[in-house]
Amino acid sequence: MRSLLRTFAMWFSVCALAWAQGEVREGLSLPSGTFKKAMRYSIYLPPGYELSKRTYPVVYLFHGFGDDDAAWIHNGEIAETLDRAIADRHATPMIVVMPDGGSSWFVNSADGASKWEDYFFKEFLPFIEERFRVRTHRRSRAIGGISMGGYSALSYALRHSDRFTACMALSPSLRAPEDVAAISPERWAQAYAPVFGAAKGEGRISTHWQALSPLRVLESAKAEAFPSTRIYLDCGDHDPLLKGTFAFHSLMDARGVTHALRVRGGGHSWGYWRVGLLGGLTFISDVFRED
Prior knowledge:
By secondary structure, this protein is of the alpha/beta class. Helices cover 43% and strands 18% of the residues. The chain contains eleven helices and eight strands. It has an eight-stranded mixed sheet, with helices on both faces. Strand 5 (141-146), helix 5 and strand 6 form a beta-alpha-beta unit.
């Protein structure tokens, strides 16, 4: 009898563990009219998604330059982090959508050749809301990213604050105008020119750049236009982008924008972001729960 009870207990424990695991669907795609091709994305569905009929809050999570939609799964280990956080009730069950932005910076390019931001709002977001059981009102929708994706998440949060209740930016690629002008021609040509134009020096601070830069957007915003989106920043103390993060933090303080700043030991790496992911998602979850 005792042996039977032990077997039952072990079986129950295995079932409970399986129930606590979310599902990752990697390398999915949707046909895009904007790009005339299939666009990749991956998604995390919380434990119990397939067995329930409930709807869930959603986070759109952007990757960094040189990565793709699977980066948060393999390098960021987002499923393991969220499974534990949800089981421990540090985070509410949520859906996380990870689109593949390539090297687009998730925005429209200056020359109009790439309209990634148009694609996101006109095609991708409506597709996700139709295909998966995500809550469609602002108070249950958040955005986040790292490096290039952190820049874009902040840019979206400021320019589309009517769409997002919270934003998480880890090591966001924020640079003051003088630092943008100082980027080497080789690096600019590789990572920036296709989106922001091939100008040199101060010529890079174009109308297009100013319209998208989170620093510039916040600096030029009128008081009545300050975003109500709650913002979370996290950047390593040895990260070269810390200067821009501090500048953005100071500007938000001066403008009275609600936000949190975290600085930990570390640099611009997945080792830093994997650890920081929990804090960012917990912040977003707390905002979901408040609303």
